[in-house]
Write a structure and sequence with these properties.
heterodimer, A: alpha+beta, eight-stranded mixed beta sheet, four-stranded antiparallel beta sheet, 13 helices, 29% helix, B: alpha/beta, Rossmann fold, 2 domains, five-stranded parallel beta sheet, 12 helices
Chain lengths: 407, 276
């Protein structure tokens, strides 16, 4: 459904401003959008307040969106706060990410039953994936989905459970107009304005008594949904306000990261003192990897029942912070906290380029917020740059093939 | 009880403990009949006083409780000798239990304060895990143990495959079930980041912090958590107390002496080296 590469969408994509056909949707039209998606056969997934956080789950009505809720973010801290407007998308990343739907925490790969004719091996639990509409994907998280695409279905888009789930997803992106204190998508070139890959793109305008969205399609499927909505062509004032809000957000990032030459710097910093420092603070609990929208590692276990008649192969999320993660014959390869934190960071920001052609980080800040002891990825990277500079190495320059990939 | 020589013989033993883990075995309601059909239960006095004839050998022995008396110290040797596979179940058997608080005090003094005739009490100075006395094949932590982990372990042993008992943190289980971190989202102190998974992260799912009843995870960095517990408002006396429960001896051994409950000294600084 979603056009991930190229500009196949009916309305073109983000960059081609001159050709964009943009419309206005009143805030009340979110319900029409929800209805249209349901009518098209989608289960609508989006943000809503559950307990202490804004989490992602099924929306049975657009009224369940977190209207008027924002969040205050800090390293190791997340609090809901009331906004002084009724914005539905005035919040940054929460504890969950779209990964939990595309690459679920637990998945049965196959099952087997002992019968009179030997073992009968059956498929995994989910063969026909449910059509899901993701409502309210932030630009950084759209990029995160595309990073997962590259990892889990490969450059050639091979058929697998992930591919089938992914193909059944409709994506409504909402541009970011209010980054959080731990956001740095501008550094990672993943936001605050969405890149291509959405079916529908919206920008929320929340001026008092004038709550509306600028909306455009990014795919034929998106165009089809858009046609059924109560929209009118956007007036230039609205589009200007929308664009200014998104552009302005780039200057209000709570965090930043120096990415030019970063993979090379990391490769040259494997023995930096900073690893010892961060490892003394790191709990190796794995929260950062679970919260990260692109960390994809899993473990697989074969399980039998008491009778021995049934067996399942189960896959579940795993983490490079687990001691058992690198267990080979006789012991773990990465036995120290130093080696495990270094592995995570250098893979995410460095060797991910070599492996998958981009950074593994989209700047959403989840690893900073959901670290129980507030370890800040951007601070660690800044410290590694500083240590390298203090050691007399030349400042970052256009030295490697990685340069420029992060824009 | 009928013996069927084709079926594996299972024994369930009790040392110093509250019987809660044995009750967890009986709490496997849906699976209990299947289990009873797959094994001969040769010894399980919490369930029945009937015993199969003969001392052993047992294919699998589940041992609850810590070693806290000279009699138990001798008995565990015999149990080990009689058991092909020995599995300890629960915080008492795997870590010495809450009764290991005695390890940080003077048990003679306790006994004289509590009992009219302390000379009747034959006890050891310490309460220790079974693994301090005999080789143990597998350990299920928890106070009490988790039913699903127990069924998983028994299913694995019956099928002849190695049970998988994850050594990672409770945090991963919170994330897998979609619980928003109680430390981050509501400022509730939690031992999840240093505690071994296995319970399914029950407490945080109900809005309270993990209190570490599964004991320390593999290679925890307790020293890095302590300053954050303080930051969330726990006084040092409470921090000492929260680590000094069912797994007091195990947490003490991984936290570099902190938080020994009997010492009045202030907790040490975070151990910079304990992450590796």
């Amino acid at each position: 459904m979603t056009v991930v590469t190229g500009n196949g969408g009916a309305a073109g994509n983000g960059g081609a401003a001159g050709q964009r056909r943009r419309f206005e949707l009143p805030a009340a039209g979110l319900e029409d959008l929800h209805r249209a998606l349901v009518s098209a056969g989608y289960q609508v997934i989006g943000p809503r307040v559950t307990g202490d956080a804004i989490t992602l789950g099924e929306l049975t009505s657009a009224s369940e969106l977190p209207f008027g809720w924002g969040v205050s973010l800090s390293p190791g801290g997340y609090r809901l706060r009331k906004r002084d407007d009724a914005a539905a998308f005035g919040h940054s990343a929460g504890p969950g990410s779209w990964k939990q739907f595309l690459h679920p925490p637990r998945e049965q790969l196959w099952s087997a039953t002992r019968g009179t004719d030997g073992l009968a091996v059956g498929p995994g639990a989910v063969q026909e994936p449910r059509k899901l509409a993701f409502l309210g994907v932030r630009p950084c998280d759209l990029r995160a989905i595309q990073v997962l695409d590259r990892v889990l279905r490969g450059a050639s888009g091979r058929d697998c459970a992930y591919s089938r789930r992914r193909a059944a997803v409709f994506i409504v992106v909402v541009n970011c107009t209010e980054p959080g204190e731990t956001c740095f998508c501008a550094s990672m070139a993943t936001g605050p304005e969405s890149g291509p890959g959405y079916d529908l793109l919206m920008t929320e305008l929340t001026a008092e008594s004038d709550h509306r969205f600028v909306i455009e399609a990014g795919s034929p499927g998106g165009q089809e949904i858009l046609t059924g909505l109560p929209v009118r062509p956007a007036d230039p004032g609205a589009t200007q306000r929308a664009d200014a809000a998104v552009t302005g957000a780039a200057d209000r990032m709570g965090r930043s990261m120096q990415t030019d030459g970063l993979p090379g710097m990391l490769a040259a910093s494997l023995h930096a003192q900073r690893w010892e420092d961060v490892a003394s603070r790191c709990l190796t609990c794995g929260n950062c990897t679970m919260a990260c929208p692109t960390c994809f590692c899993t473990t697989v276990e074969d399980v039998t029942d008491l009778s021995g008649e049934h067996a399942d192969r189960q896959q579940s999320w795993s983490s490079c912070f687990e001691l058992d993660f690198s267990y080979l014959h006789g012991g773990p390869v990465r036995s120290s906290g130093v080696s495990r934190y270094r592995q995570w960071l250098t893979h995410k920001l460095g060797t991910w380029h070599d492996q998958f052609g981009s950074s593994g980080c989209v700047g959403c800040g989840r690893c900073i917020v959901w670290c129980p002891v507030g370890i800040d990825l951007t601070e660690e990277v800044a410290a590694l740059w500083a240590e390298r500079d203090a050691a007399g190495e030349p400042a970052a320059g256009p030295e490697g093939p990685e340069r420029g990939e992060q824009g | 009880m009928q013996a069927d020589s084709a079926r594996p013989r299972l024994a369930v033993w009790k040392l110093a403990s509250c019987d809660g883990c044995q009750l967890t075995v009986l709490d496997c309601q849906d699976e209990l009949l299947t289990l009873a059909g797959e094994v001969d239960i040769a010894h399980f006095t919490e369930a029945t006083s009937a015993e199969l004839p003969g001392p052993g050998p047992f294919d699998v022995s589940l041992v609850e409780g810590s070693v806290s008396t000279p009699a138990d110290a001798a008995r565990i040797q015999q149990i080990r000798a009689d058991s092909r596979t020995l599995v300890t179940i629960g915080a008492c058997a795997t870590a010495g239990g809450i009764q290991a608080l005695r390890n940080f005090g003077d048990v003679t003094e306790f006994a004289s304060a509590v009992y009219a005739r302390p000379d009747y009490i034959a006890t050891l100075a310490t309460s220790t895990p079974v693994s301090s006395h005999v080789p143990v094949d597998f350990e299920l932590p928890g106070c009490p143990i988790d039913k699903r982990q127990l069924i998983g372990l028994l299913s694995a042993l019956l099928a002849g495959r190695e049970p998988r008992i994850p050594g990672h943190s409770v945090c991963e289980q919170c994330k897998l079930r979609g619980t928003a971190c109680v430390m981050v989202a509501r400022g509730t102190p939690c031992l999840g980041p240093v505690t071994q998974a296995g319970c399914g992260a029950i407490c945080p799912a109900f809005g309270r912090g993990c209190y570490g009843c599964f004991g320390p995870m593999t290679a925890p960095n307790v020293g890095a958590l302590v300053p954050w517990l303080r930051r969330l408002g726990m006084p040092d006396s409470d921090i000492r107390r929260v680590f000094a429960t069912f797994n007091v001896a195990a947490f003490d051994s991984v936290a570099g002496g902190f938080p020994g409950p009997a010492t009045q000294a202030e907790p040490g600084q975070p151990d910079a080296g304990s992450g590796s």
